[in-house]
């Protein structure tokens, strides 16, 4: 399948549903809500190993890596451009 405008709109509204006051949403939550909205959604169906790569490929979103409080993990956040 191709990443189309319908998918981009779904991602955009999902981010809006979860975003904080600055517009950022935790990517894990975005992925979970996408699955609730579209149960058959899988980034691999669009040729991407991960949701992060699919979102990044569109050029329509900002992605930010943040360290958690203990510094062990990188947390991915996404924002509509």
Task: Tag the structure with descriptive keywords.
81 residues, 3 helices, alpha+beta, 41% helix
Fold and architecture overview:
The chain has 81 residues and is of the alpha+beta class. Helix content is 41%, strand content 20%. It is built from 3 helices and 3 strands, in the order H-E-H-H-E-E. The protein has a 3-stranded antiparallel β-sheet with strand order 1-3-2. Strand 2 and strand 3 form a beta hairpin. The relative contact order is 0.22.
Radius of gyration: 12 Å
Helix proportion of residues, in percent?
Answer: 40-55%
Low-confidence stretches: none
Overall residue-averaged pLDDT value: 93
**Total beta strands:** 3
Count of helices? 3
Which percent band covers the strand fraction?
15-25%
Topology diagram in text:
Elements: H1 5-18, E1 25-26, H2 27-37, H3 51-58, E2 61-67, E3 74-80
Antiparallel strand pairs: 1-3, 2-3
Helix pairs in contact: 1-2
Summarize the structure.
By secondary structure, this protein is an alpha+beta fold.
């Amino acid at each position: 399948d191709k990443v189309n405008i319908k998918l981009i709109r779904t991602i955009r509204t999902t981010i809006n549903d979860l975003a904080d006051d600055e517009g950022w949403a935790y990517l894990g939550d975005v992925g979970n809500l996408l699955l609730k909205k579209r149960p058959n959604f899988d980034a691999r169906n669009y040729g991407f190993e991960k949701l992060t790569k699919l979102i990044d490929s569109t050029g329509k979103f900002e992605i930010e890596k943040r360290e958690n409080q203990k510094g062990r993990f990188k947390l991915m956040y996404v924002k509509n451009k």
